[in-house]
Amino acid sequence: MKFFEGENVFQYSWLQVAHVFWYRYPNPFSKHVRTEDILYRKVEEGILHTKRLLTKTVRVSYFGYNISIKNEPIIEESFIDPKKQIIKTYTWNIGTAVARIREECFYKPKEEKQTVIERKAWIASSKMYFPGIIEGYLIRRFEKNVTKTCKGLEFVLSNMFPSPLLQEKSSLIDKDKICEKARKAKDIAKSGAVPIFTAYANRG
């Protein structure tokens, strides 16, 4: 098993990052993300708890062989606490036989106009030959993907808030509206969530 740990700082407030959290995809740096569907959403003691199903295109090179998985299912579970100003996400894959990947991210305020994302990941290859080599390759690829993920988030933030130095507008980033926008996202995605989830649930 390989372990990754790192952090990235964005020159935007936590409220701004929380506002764009549900608008991260699509973006030019995350074209591998194909679909997003909400499986579960509920406000529990002021904390928005959401579980989503994402599908991604995964490409792996293995001793000269290129493995491409067009609809790799990924579960993303998130907890948004507007009062404490923290977002926690837990992400793991449920489909590929190549490796098991689990990621944890914590979004926290750093300075008045800064947000830090603390990230940890664990990668364990399946029972294939030379697991150490495979895990080493996957951890390097994961590091590159983190860079793309951060560029994608920066892209969305810069489009939503052209200048991070501008004063935040309460009409856009009011704490209550973060949950309200999430509820609207649930209604939009609800019709498509059941068929996709059922399809994967019936695979076994």
UniProtKB/TrEMBL annotation:
This is PRELI domain-containing protein 1, mitochondrial. Residues 1-165 form the PRELI/MSF1 domain. Pfam families: PRELI. InterPro entries: PRELI/MSF1_dom (IPR006797), Slowmo/Ups (IPR037365). PROSITE patterns: PRELI_MSF1 (PS50904). It comes from the Eukaryota. GO terms for cellular component: mitochondrial intermembrane space.
